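Protocol check, entry for the methods section draft. Step 1: assemble the input record (protein sequence plus ligand SMILES). Step 2: submit for complex structure prediction. Step 3: store the structure tokens unaltered in the notebook. Ligand used here: manganese (II) ion. Step 1 record:
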Amino acid sequence: MRLALVIRPFADDNLMTARQMGVEDVVTTLPHELQTGPVWDYLAIVRHKKRIEDIGLRWSVVESVSISNRIKLALDGRDEDIEHYCQTIRNLGAAGIPTMCYNWMAVFGWMRTSLTTRTRGGALASTYDHEEMKNAPLTEHGEVSEERLWENLEYFLKIVIPVAEEAGVKQGLHPDDPPLSPIRGISRIITSPEAFDRVFDIAPSDCNGITFCQGNFKAMGVDIPENIRHFGNQNKIVFAHFRDLHGQVPTFSESFHDDGDTDMASCIRAYNEVGFEGAIRPDHTPTFAIDKEETGGYNFLGRLYAIGYMKGLIHGTA
Ligand SMILES: [Mn+2]
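Step 3, stored output:
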């Protein structure tokens, strides 16, 4: 596996620091100022890639090209948005970017009910507690059924996966976060290992893969190494998020990677066992006391700490 990092803010000194930490791969979107239209421009992609390579790193994962509610809810304009998404895949493939991470959460994405939970030593972490959400009002989209989301995902995959194959860009579906349905009337469908099996049956292809976000599998309450083996042995893991929690749905809090409920060494062993060769990056980390602000789990210091821990586990399990 290859150690990867999201560079935030996207700046040369942060890229260099990542390289100095021994990170090889960069996970990034195209910076906002370079997104000049609904399709990511080929030359803008190449320049962003070269900026990373000129510092000795590699842009191996796009996280993410957003997928509109028009696509996820089958609203007017869906086909136009899917065509834009496909054209971006073609441009990324032509530029040699091998992997994209996407999700099928409609209307809202990642959700937490607190960003001020105190974890070890008072570090700030996030919590999802469904008690706080069960009476939440519906959104402007009313109720959205699981059936409708599956239908729309099937429609999307049947168009996009053949394009991804031709372009040579693997699509890694990230689990819903939290993996719980519905929230505010909006169903969520990517909430179990079985959901991924179903996704792979819809469009069988090496390019139809999974972003194995460990935190969400932990939140599902399933055995993580067993699922790494289940999907890894089918070559379905195209990208991984390293993350841990205390608890599982309907209530969990995020933790330091060395302080959650999961035996993280057993996860690294499972990746080794299945010969996982993709990028793995630390996902959310708690915020340290010396950090200036909470950034949803993306402060540099927390992720620096996480990379050190991951390197230790990788060396220790080799
Ligand atoms: Mn994740």
